[in-house]
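so my prof wants the structure for this chain in the tokens format not the other one, which i didnt know existed until like an hour ago. anyway here's the sequence
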Amino acid sequence: MTTLNQDLIQYVLRQADTPLILAQRLCAWCGHAPELEIDLALSNIGLDLLGQARNFYSYAAELSGENVDEDSLAFGRDDLAFCNLLLAEQPNGGFNDTLVRQFFLDTYHFLLHQGLSQSSDPQLAAIGAKSLKEAEYHLRFSRGWMIRLGDGTELSQKKMQQAINDLWRFTGELFHSDDVERRLAEQGIAVNPESLQAPWLQIVQQVLQEATLQLPEGEAYRHGGKQGKHTEYLGFMLAEMQFLQRAYPGCRW
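here's what i got, hopefully its the right format
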């Protein structure tokens, strides 16, 4: 297997793992969200993300040329083999925590899929173009609630600001690139995460200003998820998510 093919498989898995883990988090809100409308919206967004993950996993399986499929990639790998962004695996907490996490990642995914839709790899370009339509809706949803709650009551503003302060340290990883991404970006295949930082920050600042919220002063220092270095939360999530396939390998409905 060539270096290019190995890089591409690793990159595609990164694009699959983050929406899969985020979908798992969002779907945990089903039946527990503050309002029925929010309950349905979070579940639908989770299903959109699951669909995006499936598209990427299918492509990764195709590239690997081995006896793997989307199910084995999602349910057969241990936490050290997952390469999702750390932000996606953070606990749901309250609705404020989930919403801020979602807004940060929605903004990132919107810009990412814009770039991927222009990829020189036809499959990545097709997945990016399809996912972009969903990412636009996701961002519209989370942006609206950021403003509604940030510019709401004194309590809602306090809770939103606290969630921003708590999760900010994970946002730096969104733009941390390594050799895999740089090599693919030079060939027009991948999106270099570093190129997304300025437009991401511009959107975030505009929304926070409208929501009467503040950017934290601390540095966004946590990263390593793309290299398999995760927080303690991922292992617990995978134990629940992968139980059926682990207990009954290869089972089918």
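also thought this was worth mentioning. The chain has a mean pLDDT of 95.
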